[in-house]
Every structure is written in structure tokens, then in C-alpha cells.
Amino acid sequence: MFTRENAQLSLKTKNWYVAYTYPQVEKKLHKLLMDLGYESFLPLNSVKRQWSDRIKLLEVPLFPNYLFVKTTIDKLHDLLNLDGLSRFLIFENKYATLKDAEISRIRKILDQGDEVAVLTSKFVRGQEVIVKKGPLQGFEGLLVEEHGRDRFIMELKGLKQRLSVNVPTKFLGTKE
């Protein structure tokens, strides 16, 4: 039963809220939140970036434009006044939150030191796709299944035979 006492208790319960930041300010905002006494989590991933003259190891946000703030719901409005914070994510009219266990899992994964990639595929099985780049550019096909970290298996119709090939996700586009 929802009572005034329960409502007060829920206002004082700390949760991990998902903050959406302006581009390229995640680290600055994370530091600011920590300086203000908030518990903030910005998962960083080490990635190699290559320029024409060198390769450099960079610490980049695992989830660009996102960081996680553990606070009470009544403090969210005040946090929106911070430079760099755009909004807090809302799904189905509720603030998006993560459980402590989910934050712990992300930390464990990052502590292992393996390269981590966030997969946010815009493709679904059975979708008509076209190869936009690479040696198979222009081929149209049906997406059969996701295979591995960032590869898909497609059937290419244009060959008049069934042929499955691995095509990097970044080379695929949706058929207009």
C-alpha cells in the first residue's frame, strides 16, 4: 500500500540514475559530481587510436554521453543545473535506473582489462540490408544472424546462389 511514509522513504532511497551529457564532457562532469560529494560512475574503456604518425592508447567513455549518478530522486532537479548535464534518461515515464549489481558487473568487466565493445545494432534478423562499403559494396541481402562481436552473416541474393559472407557491421546500411 502506498502511504505518505512510503513516499518519503522512496525520496530518500539512493539509486543509480542515468545522466545524459553533452558531447565530450563526461570526464569533466564526472569530476565535478565527485567534487560535489556525489557518487558518480563513468565507465572508461582503453582503446587504441591510430593517427598517421602514431598509435595512442586513450581512455574513452564506454557509453558516450552517459554517466551514472547515485543519488536520491529529489536531487535530480538540482543536478540539471550543472554545466554539461543535458537530462536524466526516462523510460516509460520513470527515471532510468541501474541496480548496484549491474554497476558492479560493469566494473568487473572493465577490471578484467579485455577490450570491451558496446553493441547497439540498428539491424534485426530478417531485415533487407545493403553493403555500403568494402569489396562487396552494392550487394543487397537478407540479414541472417549476428555472428561474433561486430559481424553479420548475410545471404547475397544478387549471386543467384545462396552465399553467406561475413560483413563488418560498419559496412552495412538499411535498404531504402
Commentary on this structure:
With 176 residues, this protein is of the alpha+beta class. It contains four helices and 14 strands. Strands 1, 2, 5, 6 and 9 form a five-stranded antiparallel sheet that branches. A hairpin with an 8-residue loop joins strand 10 (128-131) and strand 11 (140-146). The longest helix is centred in the middle third of the chain and has 12 residues, at 100-111. The chain starts with a helix and ends with a strand. Residues 156-161 have low confidence and may be disordered.
Helix share bin: 10-25%
Q: Average pLDDT, to the nearest integer?
A: 80
Percentage of residues in strands:
35-45%
Number of helices: 4
Gyration radius (Cα, Å) is 21 Å
Number of E strands:
14
Globular, elongated, flat, extended or rod-shaped: what is the shape?
Answer: globular
By CATH reckoning, the class of the largest domain would read Alpha Beta
Pattern of helices and strands: HEHEEEEHEEEEHEEEEE
Which residue ranges are poorly predicted, with pLDDT under 50 across at least 5 consecutive positions? Answer: 156-161
Structural class: alpha+beta
CATH architecture of the largest domain: 2-Layer Sandwich
In short:
It is built from 4 helices and 14 strands.
Question: How is this fold's topology laid out?
Answer:
Blueprint: H1 4-12, E1 14-21, H2 26-35, E2 39-41, E3 44-50, E4 55-61, E5 66-72, H3 76-79, E6 85-88, E7 90-91, E8 94-95, E9 97-98, H4 100-111, E10 128-131, E11 140-146, E12 151-156, E13 164-168, E14 172-174
